[in-house]
Amino acid sequence: MKNVFATLVAAVSLSLLAASAFAAAPEGDKETKEDIARHRAIAAAHEGAARCRESGKKEDICQKELQAACKGLAIGKYCGMKHEH
Q1: How far is the C-alpha of 45 from the C-alpha of 1, rounded, in Å?
Q2: Once rounded to an integer, what is the mean pLDDT over residues 1-14?
């Protein structure tokens, strides 16, 4: 359980770090702004998954919520990320 939470926290942190790295992009770069927004949305979805697990809900329920939150954002059913359980 601690490993799952630590992995999710690390994923969110890395996503936020990546988004902040893109923040220095030129104002008019539409693609960069869209990429930043996607990273933030994915990070928010993973944060929601972490909160779901913290609340005591079962993994399959939280996984379904993550999949719903990530629909159209990332590739695959793991919201662009997969880790061991």
Answers
A1: 19
A2: 50
How far apart are alpha carbons 81 and 74 in whole angstroms? 9
Nearest CA to 8 among 65, 26, 37?
65
Domain ranges of the chain: 2-70
Tell me the pLDDT tens digit for each residue of 16-63.
555 555 555 556 699 999 989 999 999 999 999 999 999 999 999 999
**DSSP type of residue 1:** -
Amino acid identity of 38?
A: R
Provide the 3-class DSSP secondary structure of residue 71: coil
| Burial letters 66-77, b for 16+ CB under 10 A, else e | beebbeeebeee
Q: How far apart are CA 44 and CA 42, in angstroms?
A: 5
